[in-house]
Amino acid sequence: MNNTLIILLISTCLYPQISGTVIDYVSNQPLAGVNITGGNTGTAANENGQFLLDVKTGEKLTFAHIGYLEIVESAQDGMIVKMQSVTLQSEEIIVRAGLKDESLQRSTNSVTVYDAKEIKQADGNHFQDIMESIPNLNAAGGTSRPRYFQIRGIGERSHYFAEGPPNFSVGFVIDDIDLSGLGMAGLLYDLDQIEIFKGPQSS
Questions:
Q1: Residue 117 burial by CB count (10 A; 0-12/13-18/19+): exposed, middle or buried?
Q2: Is the Cα torsion angle 123, 191, 188, 155 positive or negative in sign?
Q3: 35 CA to centre of own chain
Q4: Region for residue 56 given its phi and psi (left: phi exceeds 0; alpha: psi -120 to 50; beta: otherwise)
Q5: Which end of the chain is more exposed for a tag (fewer CB within 10 A), N or C?
């Protein structure tokens, strides 16, 4: 009986690894956390603005980051990508600062606002970037307790997990419901707007 040995050679198409750096257009400083996508793959720039991506030369790459214009560039090894910051354009933004509707342009207090588009652009993996980009705001907490916030060094302490009596120096409100003391006890979905109000009543 004759046995036939069949050997199949399957070639695998491997894309070269493209490297690059993302920097600010004006300051030339590296931009960390920039989302980079091309084809069916994607990555994010590290703390030095550097990235590696398995795509072929010439493929279109999309670069997106909070507070910057989204741009498309052709993939080239060693590429330098410059992103321009963008100012939010709006006739009027209404915020809930001070427990009442108020025009952001007329507010005498410091208010930071992120709309749904900016939140979506950040995505879940980089939601922390939003918090870190807001001056005088710190998110405290750990894996064993909900996260809570400090504004200008003053914050709240949860009345859970034996952390002592609640201190509501910082209010935490979602859809007009006061959740002070609970912090970010659960995941937040479908956020339309984030407002950080740094005024005498909240800090």
A1: exposed
A2: positive
A3: 10
A4: beta
A5: N
Q: Are residue 37 and residue 106 in the same domain, yes or no?
A: no
77 and 130 inside one domain: no
Length of the chain: 203
- Note the pTM of the prediction, 2 decimals: 0.43
Q: SS3 helix, strand, coil % of the chain, rounded to 5?
A: 10, 35, 55
- Please give the structure tokens belonging to residue 156: 């709240």
Domain that holds residue 112: 94-198
Same domain, 100 and 175: yes
pLDDT tens-digit profile, the chain (203 residues): 555 555 554 444 556 789 999 999 999 999 998 999 988 888 999 999 999 999 999 999 999 998 899 999 999 999 999 999 986 555 555 555 455 555 545 554 566 777 777 766 655 555 566 666 666 666 665 554 445 566 665 555 544 444 444 454 566 666 666 666 555 545 555 667 777 766 554 43
User: Are 52 and 142 contained in the same domain?
Assistant: no
In degrees, rounded to 5, the angle at the alpha carbon of residue 184 between the alpha carbons of residues 178 and 188 is 95
Distance, CA of 163 to CA of 154 (rounded, Å): 16
